[in-house]
User: Fold this.
Amino acid sequence: MGKGNVLVGQSGGPTAVINSSLAGVFKTAMERGYNKVYGMRYGIQGFLDEQYIDMADYVKNELDIELLKRTPSAFLGTCRYKLPEIHEDRAVYERIFELLDKLDIEVFVYIGGNDSMDTIRKLFDYSLLTGAKQKFVGCPKTIDNDLAITDHTPGFGSAAKYIATSTKEVICDALGFSYKKKNVIIIEIMGRNAGWLTGASALSKGEDCEGPDLVYLPEVPFSVEQFTDSVKEKLEQKDVVVAVVSEGIRTAEGKYICEFTAGSETKDAFGHIQMTGTAAYLSEVIHREIGCKTRAVELSTLQRAAAHLSSKIDVDEAFNVGGATVKAADEGNSGVMVVIDRISDDPYMSSTGVYDVHRIANGEKVVPREWINEAGDYVSEEFLDYVRPLIQGHYSPMMVAGLPRHLTMDSKNYDWINNKNIQ
Assistant:
């Protein structure tokens, strides 16, 4: 009797390499003899409405796999849908497992972060209650790098590379306007409760760049008054001051700085407030208190969408992790997430393993306090040593007519490779 089918979905915020994991799932499932790989459209939420595709209709050859690995955003579409607890709404689970049986699903893979691993946990627990045949495996993904147990998450390395590069370029731009002018640039980086991305901005420091002057992570309470004093002190020494702040910095009382701005009352299905405006608020404070020129730079979704600047290490690990999810299920594992174990830094080497998803779901890995300086305004060398290997190497985009080519649901012409403008 042959194998059944694989169902894969993407959930939460996308990354520059989330589709590399999808490619890894698809290729490994085909190599291991599974009949079909179905892709959930818009995660578990879309699946409940029977929205799914046969991946083979879109990924037809090795070239498409390589193209998918270089495509940003979530190819299948994503969602932020919170499954209820089993005792709260058993009907939802009955519906999901009815569809799984209908499609002869043997392996369920969910590519995502903390909330997505919570979905894997709940589905696995329901399968134990009912004796369902499916195996449930989580594939890690998040630029925030805040998943527990795993050394790091696919998506983080590429986002860190983009942030460090952009910080360096912003600093170069600011210095070009510094003649006899005091100028403060505040760069806002994603990160609700974990400052991994914000700290990565310090990688911009090198022989040709001084790097940011101040770096603030959400792991340390933030004082607007102390921040203003630090900026004043820096301006006495130099004309241009660059501060990098996490969108999630908050006061000692626990209030996010972004809550001092409008638009912070919007919440998603998991109760997370909309985080935006931190740099803009601090820029206004500095301008009011010091009177110098200020500029707020919010990298926003560019941090997770810049596939053209993705890390080769990150793309390759994302692909391998995707494949490892299918392998884990094939070997009898369920209720687990694939993790990355770091073997060495120089040369950098890693491997994959599996870990109980119950130990990961709803957990949060933050930057260790000892990796932040005593003043709370910069990261340590240990932090930089941890991140630096993850940004190495580069995957060149497949260029057509001067722009990167991507694989999308609307790609109807697969003869693009014959385009005379391909580069």
Notes: The longest strand covers residues 336-345. The chain has two domains: 5-154+307-364+398-404, 157-305. The two ends are 46 Å apart (CA to CA).
